[in-house]
Amino acid sequence: MVMNILLKRILDRLVLTGNLKVTGPKGLSVDFGDGSGDLVHMHIKTAHAERAISFDPMLAVPEAYMDGELDILEGGVLGVMRIAFQNMGSGGIDATWSKAIEGLRHAFRRLQQINTAARARRNVQRHYDLSGDLYRLFLDEDMQYSCAYFEQPDMTLDEAQAAKKRHIAAKLRLKAGQTVLDIGSGWGGLGLYLAKSFDVDVQGVTLSTEQHGVATDRAYAQGLENRAHFELRDYRELNERFDRVVSVGMFEHVGVNHYRTFFDKSATLLKPDGVMLLHTIGRSGAPWATSAFIRKYIFPGGYIPSLSEVMPAIEKSGLIVTDIEVLRLHYAETLRHWSARFAANRDKAKAIYDERFCRMWEFYLAASEAAFRWQDLVVFQIQIAKKNDTLPMSRDYMAKCEKALQLRDMGHRQKAPAAKPARRRKVADME
Question: What is the mean pLDDT of residues 3-9?
C-alpha cells in the first residue's frame, strides 16, 4: 500500500490546486493537486504519524513535525499551510469528517476559555515567561511582540514597529499630564514611548513575571521610573481611573466568556472624558475555534474573536465605538520578519531550549503567517470613548499627530551618533 487509504482520500479531496508530494513511511510518493505553483514535499516518516494525520490533520501535522515524525523536504511549513488554506472551502476538506472535529472544537470553545484570574496567570506564564533571550532572537530592538504597521512595504521590522506605536499614540489623542493605563504592557516598549513622547504618566499591568522585570529595568535605564510604572497585576484588580486606556495584543487572552467583564471593567477604569484604544487579532469571517495546535502548545486559553463577538460586549458596557480600523496583511509581514530572524538564530534558540521546541516555534510562526495571508485573520484597532463628543468629528487629528511623531522620530535618529551603539539603542527604545 502506497499510503493510508483514509489519508489519501482526504488529500485527494482537499488538494485540488497546488503542487504537493507526500512520501510515506515506506518511501513511496504520491502527487496531489494540479501541479501549479512551487513544489511542497512532505515526508511522513512513521505509520503512527500517518494514522494520526488521517484522523485529525490540523493537530497531528504540527505534532508530527515537532516530534520529527514528519519532515518538509521542500516548500517549508509556510508552503504546506498555503496549500491547505488555499484549498479549504473549495469542496475539499469541507467534505471530510475532520470538519466535524473542528466544529466540535468550536462548540466547546467556551469550556476551554474559563479564564479566571488564576488560570489567566498560568496561561500567560506558559508563553510569555519563556526566556527573554528567546524573544530577543527574533523581535525588533524594542521587543514589540504584536503586529507592526507597515506604512511602506519596504520598511524594516524596527521601522514598522515604531510606526505601530505612532499609529496607536495618534488614536489616543494624548495630552501632557494625563494618566494612561496599558493593559498587557509586555516588555514595556509602548508605555515607555508614550511616557517619553507625550509627558504622560503610564501604569502598565502584566501577568508575566519575565515581562514585568524587563519593563521595570528599562524604565529605570531610560530614567522614566517616575513616569512609567509596571505592575505584576490582573487588570480586574484595578480600581483607579485613567484618562486613557490602551491594550495591545492582550485581548486575545481574555476569552469569549469574559468579554463583558473586560469592557465593563474598562468603563469603570476610564474617566468621563476618557478614550481607549484596543488593538487585537480578529477574524474577518464568522466565529470559529482556536487552532488546536495553537491552543495546546502556544496560547492556552487564547481565542481570536470576530467583530460580531466583540461589539455586543462594548455596547452593553455603555462605551461608544468611535473608530474601527482593520489592518490586513500587516501581521503576515510581521510574522515573515520574525520567522526569518528566528531561522537566522535557530542554533541559539536550540541552545536555550531544544530541537523539538525549535520545530514547534517554526511551525507556530509559519502557520500564523499563513493564517493572516490566506485565511481570515486580521487585526482590529477599535477606538472607544465614554462620551460622544470627547474626540474631534473627523479623523484628521490622527494623521496630523502621526506625521508630527514621524518627523520628530526621524530627527532623533539623525541626531544619534552612529559610532555609539549604546546611544542608538536608547533612541530605538524611545521609538
Answer: 85
